[in-house]
Design a protein that fits this description.
172 residues; 3 domains
């Protein structure tokens, strides 16, 4: 019985060590200056007009990227939080420097508007289709196909000529 208890204790200790290693790995990656720099540079837009993220701006001879990257590094080195850095960039370069608008105030409209427009268009389409269905003549009635034996000879000749020219027997 002592052997089973020892094995159980061993597995508990092993699970604790693994959990500790995983937690330390995640915390080291989160505090890494390089990872933080990359994350923040991909949350900001380059202001040169290339419409690319700051971290991915490949504009040859970009007049803005170098200064913005230096500003970002200086803010990180100063120990500011991510939100403080984003606020600093928005204050210096304008709100358009942010890759995603903040989800508050008037900027919240940028998040809501696409869904609201889609919903309104969907509702309008549904109402339009229902309206078309209620119009007179909107419903198609089956049409009786006349028997070729009862057709006018000129009409029968025209149908036969179409069949010969198209190589069709009239079926689908």
């Amino acid at each position: 019985m002592g052997s089973a208890a020892a094995r159980f204790t061993f597995w508990i200790r092993a699970a604790q060590v693994i959990a500790l290693v995983v937690a330390m790995s995640f915390s080291m990656g989160a505090s890494s200056t390089g990872a933080r720099f990359n994350d923040l540079s991909n949350r900001l837009m380059c202001t040169c007009g290339c419409a690319q993220l700051l971290g991915g701006c490949d504009h040859v001879g970009c007049p803005s990227r170098g200064q913005e990257m230096a500003d970002l590094q200086a803010q990180i080195t100063a120990g500011k939080t991510d939100q403080q850095i984003l606020n600093w960039f928005a204050a210096k370069y304008g709100a358009t420097v942010l890759a995603a608008p903040p989800a508050r105030g008037f900027d919240l409209l940028a998040w809501i508007a696409p869904f609201a427009v889609f919903g309104a268009a969907l509702l309008g389409t549904i109402l339009l289709i229902k309206h078309w269905g209620s119009l007179p003549g909107g419903k198609m009635e089956p049409v009786a196909v006349s028997n070729p034996a009862n057709m006018d000879p000129a009409e029968r000749a025209r149908i036969e000529r179409i069949r010969r020219e198209t190589g069709s027997d009239g079926g689908f």
